[in-house]
Specification:
219 residues; alpha/beta; Rossmann fold; Arc Repressor Mutant, subunit A; 10 helices; 48% helix
Length: 219
């Protein structure tokens, strides 16, 4: 089940949950986000092959006898940069700690019954501080450690990813049409580069094309 995207959609969230009551709670609490809901870890892996979300909400006890924490390694292998929020009413302290440790771990754990304010705040932190933000920080750290020069292809990739991440934060959730010339001047790149950035963001489903309908003709 996928809610339609509008120009005011804030981000893409994949919800892995088999309880209709919880899904209704999330739908109300996270109104404005694009929500895609699946009922099992297996279905979540299939969905990741079609579109990579900004955040994953992963329930611990799922349909078909599956457990969300068992799928953490495979979900992180499929989308390593996507922050995962585990939601559970059955994990003990040891289980919660295990879910938050290691290279294929979740970023956050929320206990049931879910507090709406906590859920909203955690999702926003995951979007603002994890995901692409975290990936850019990691890449820049590696560049410093490896002494990569400014004109190296690796550095150019990081700068493009960083710029696209900033554009995404600025444009997502607004109905404001971007001023290509102004953005090109601000980032000290060509108009063609900004258009390519918009093309990438729209192609990946991170921005709705209604924010810049001319993207196909101009890119």
């Amino acid at each position: 089940m996928t809610e339609p995207m509008s120009e005011r959609t804030l981000a893409n969230i994949l919800i892995v949950e088999d309880d209709p009551v919880q899904i209704r709670l999330y739908s109300k609490a996270l109104r404005g986000y694009r929500l895609t809901c699946v009922t099992s870890g297996s279905a979540a892996l299939t969905q990741l092959g079609q579109q990579v979300p900004d955040v994953i909400l992963l329930d611990h006890v799922l349909a078909d006898g599956e457990y969300g924490t068992d799928f953490l390694p495979r979900l992180k292998d499929a989308a390593a940069h996507v922050p995962i929020i585990i939601i559970s009413g059955t994990l003990d302290i040891k289980g919660r700690l295990a879910a938050l440790q290691g290279s294929r771990s979740a970023h956050y754990v929320i206990e049931k019954p879910v507090d709406v304010a906590e859920l909203q705040g955690t999702v926003q932190r995951a979007i603002d501080e994890c995901g692409l933000d975290e990936a850019v920080r990691t890449l820049r750290s590696l560049e410093r450690a490896e002494k990569i020069e400014n004109n190296d292809p690796e550095r150019r990739f990081t700068e493009r990813l960083s710029r696209q991440n900033e554009l995404l934060k600025r444009l997502r959730g607004t109905g404001t049409k971007p001023n290509i010339t102004h953005l090109a001047d601000e980032y000290k790149v060509s108009r063609k580069t900004i258009l390519r950035d918009l093309h990438d963001l729209i192609q990946r489903g991170q921005l709705d094309e209604s924010i810049y309908p001319e993207w196909k003709a101009e890119s």
